[in-house]
Each structure stands twice: as C-alpha cells, then as structure tokens.
Amino acid sequence: MYYVLKNVDLQEEKMLIQKIKNQPQNFAVVYDQHFNRIFAYVIKRTLDYQIAKDISSEVFLKAFLSLQKFKWDGKPLIVWLYAIAQNEIRLFFRKKSYSPEYLTEHAAAWSGASIPSAEEERIQIENNLIKSEKIKSIVAALNQLNEIQRECVALHYLENFTHKEIAEILSLKVGTVKSHIHRGIKNLKIILQSKNNFNG
Amino acid sequence: MANQKDIEKELKDLGNMEVSSEATQALIKIPVLKARTSSRIGLVLIIFPFLFVMGAILKHYLGIDNNITGFVYNWVVEDAPDDDSNFFSWVIRFFLLGGPLILVALNLLAILHVQWLKDQKQLILTFNLKRWNILLIFIGAAILFVFFLYALIEG
Fold it and tell me: Is the pTM of this model over 0.80?
C-alpha cells in the first residue's frame, strides 16, 4: 500500500517525462519538486552538509543525464530518485572519501526566487541537526548496522515509506524489507545498549 | 535510550525534522565538464611538452641524454626542419605551447565555478579541490613558465 506516494499523479509524471525528453530544461520541475526532500534525507543519513550537497547534486545530475533513456514503468519518479540517492549514500559509506563523478556548479537558473545566503543555511542546518548529540548518537548507531538494514530502517522511519514503497526503491521483496527493519531495530537496540553500558 | 519504542521515536523525530535547503538548492552543483575527463585529456596534452622540457633540462644542465626525453628533445630541436613556417613546425608549436595552455584552461574550467548573485550583487568564486586537476594546472603552468623564461632569455 502506498502511503508517502499516495498523492503522486502518475499520469502527470508520465507526461512530464515525455516533456523532459522533448525539452530537457523541463527537468527543472522535477528538481524543484524533489530537491529538498532528497537533500533532507541525505543530510539526515550523513550528517555532513558538504557531502549531502555533493550527493544531492550527483543524484539530480545522474537523473537528468539518464532521463532521455528512462523507460517509464508506472512507478513514481521519487522512487527512482531515492534509488539513485541510496546508491550514492552507499558509495559514500563504502569509500569514506566520496567523490561524485560529476561536479561543477550550476547557476541559480533553476530557482529564480530570491534566496538567503547558502552559508547562513549551512550554519542553521548544522546548529539544528549536525551538532545535536542526540541525533549524532542515533545516526552513529544507525551507521553501524549492515548496509541493507540501515537503508530499510532509514527509509521506513526517517522518510515514512511503507514496506511496499521501500521494496520498490531498493528492489527487494516486501517480506525481506519487513525482516530487515525488524532485525535492524533489534540491532540498534543492542548497539545503543552497549554504548550506554560503556558510558556508564 | 535502548528501549525499542524510544529508538523508533528517536528515528521518527529525526525524520520529522524540517531541513530548509532553499539556498543550497539554488547553489547546487551540476557539472558542465567532468573533472576526471579533463584530467585524462590533460595527461595526454602534457606528455609531449613535459618530455621536451625534461629532455632539455637533462641534456643541457645535467648532461644526461636519457632515452625517452632525449629522443623527444632531439626530434624537436635537431630533426625539425629549418623552415619555421613549415607545417611540422606549427604542429610542434601547437603541442608544446597549445597543449599546456589547453590543459590549464580545461582543468581550471573543471574546478572553478563563477556565480553572480544579482539580488545580492555578489560574485561567488568556488574551487573544487580535485587534486589531479590542481596538479595538472600546476604542471601546465610550470611548463609555460619555462618556455616564457626561455623566450625571455633568448630574446
């Protein structure tokens, strides 16, 4: 059952993809609609503003470059974007020195609105999220889970995706997702308990 | 916080946290040039001038006639036709001077971003710290400097 994705108008998305194929600049619609969501997810997983910025750039760039060959399979676009984001986050955790394949700057052309300073935004994000000990502790514990458990737990609890939605993003069976979430939470409990014992 | 419900609540609270990324969204990086491709192209462009300069230094200042560097140097200096307007001479000039110039330009483009914020009247220059691109820029600039110095002394 869809929960997060229940309001997605699939026919509208199908038309949008066709529009993008005819005129690539229409990708701006996808970017504007989904950037904040992908960025917020990535920063909650990595707790690093610069890395989150790079990963999000890479996600949208990859999507943009491959949309010409994209075959619509009836799934919402955001599922595809999350799948790309998952792969990039995986690369980050595996390599520890994440270097996105493509990077230079794109101008503010996709967002014509007047913007506050990005530096102010970075400071605000760091103060609210990255510097919080409570958040650091839970994310550090989450990062100790194995890759697949970590992804299932993060998508379920951080993004409110249902088991079916996660199964689509990660190309897994619904039962497998349920089991990974269940085991992931159990393992998180063990990790946090041992940390609490260690800290006295 | 090692109770299962507490853990779930912590995760959900984190998920519910608002992250405002309007400015980041506007500043986000999308490539015009792939940095890696530039450094690969750069490597090809730099080999010939690099071998030539090394050949010249080794032969004239250190008295070493190394096989590869000596071969490139002899080929350019001694085997080249005397006529300066010869096609071969232009090809050599292009590789010796054009190579490092293109290399520096390509790699600078790959790591440098210039953005003009109209509303705030600010010019933002951003450098991506890609070590290979930066190294190639330095090598290219060093080779150009050697040629410039040579031309200055000889001139």
Answer: no
